[in-house]
Amino acid sequence: MSRVLVVEDELHLAEGLRFNLEAEGYAAEVVGDGEGATDKLLRRKEPFDVVVLDIMLPGKDGFDVVSELRAARNYVPVLMLTARGRPEDVLKGFAAGADDYLAKPFDLSILLARLQGLLRRSEWMRAGKSRAAPASQNNKSDIGDFGRFSFAGKTIDFGALELRWGGNTIHLTLMESELLRHMVQNDGKIVSRKQILEEVWGLHEDTDTRAIDNFVVRLRRYIEDDPGSPRHLQTVRGVGYRFVAEPGR
Questions:
Q1: How far is residue 12's CA from residue 211's CA, in Å, rounded to a whole number?
Q2: How much is the pTM?
Q3: Residue range(s) defining the domain that contains residue 144
Q4: What is the CATH number of the domain that holds 89?
Q5: Could you tell me if 47 and 156 lie in one domain?
């Protein structure tokens, strides 16, 4: 039985979620603020399979909660609940380390589907560490849930959400991994910011694209030998970005 932690300060919504989750076979617990969430997840280290996390909380908000979890290397899947699905909240949540988002008000069936998707990803990640393809497997068409991609002495393990090189490992957020996957699958092609918003993050509104630029800056710190002069994750001025696995060829 999967355990779900609901972090929501609106009591009627929180209790309604708990009732419905338990009716669907989940074990659900509720806390009403961010401090209660970090106490359970970080101080007490209680095991949960997924967290439903409201952004607007008294005191410590949802962004702070997910940032603290990731800083403490706690990678429990997090589904963020956002007010009206504001793109700036969605992108800020992804930057903090959230795995998915759902706008209020929402349909219960959609929330359940999103939770099931996050739980499946967790299973894939656990399986991926033992079932991943060899690091030398670089065919873009073979990149899947358990796939790896290697370039310039670095390996992206999409199943484990990890970037490895020279004995070092960086744990990627789901959205960092998905952005890298999208760029790798378009190796050598220009990818526009609008395409990233729509195809990676599912946002179809006019959105401040600086959030994408911030993601790219962070990814360059991971994959470039000199982030100030990127060779692999290149800027195409006025358009977007291009990933090049083997520059100069």
A1: 34
A2: 0.74
A3: 132-243
A4: 3.40.50.2300
A5: no
Quick check: is 178 in a domain? Answer: yes
What pLDDT score was predicted for residue 84? 65
Amino acid at site 204: H
Query: In the beta sheet, which residues pair with residue 151?
Result: 154
**Contact status, residue 16 vs residue 104, Cβ threshold 8 Å:** no
Q: What is the mean pLDDT of each run of 10 residues along the chain (249 residues)?
A: 94 94 95 97 95 94 95 91 79 87 90 89 61 43 61 90 90 86 94 88 69 85 93 93 89
List beta partners, residue 6: 30, 52
138 and 28 both lie in a single domain:
no
Concatenated DSSP letters of 1-24: --EEEEE-S-HHHHHHHHHHHHHT
Exposure class string for 1-38: b at 16+ Cβ within 10 A, else e:
ebbbbbbbbeeebbeebbeebeeeebebebbbbbbbbb
Residues 110 and 142 in one domain: no
Question: What's residue 213's pLDDT?
Answer: 84
Domain boundary among 126, 159, 185: 126
Is residue 140 within 8 A of residue 184, CB to CB? The reply is yes
Question: Last residue of a domain, which of 126, 159, 192?
Answer: 126
Residue 125 has a pLDDT of: 59
Instruction: Give pLDDT, residue 10.
Output: 93
Q: Any idea how long the chain is?
A: 249
46 with 71, same domain: the answer is yes
pLDDT at 143: 46
Contact 69, 173 (CB under 8 A): no
**Calpha distance 197→88 (Å, rounded):** 12
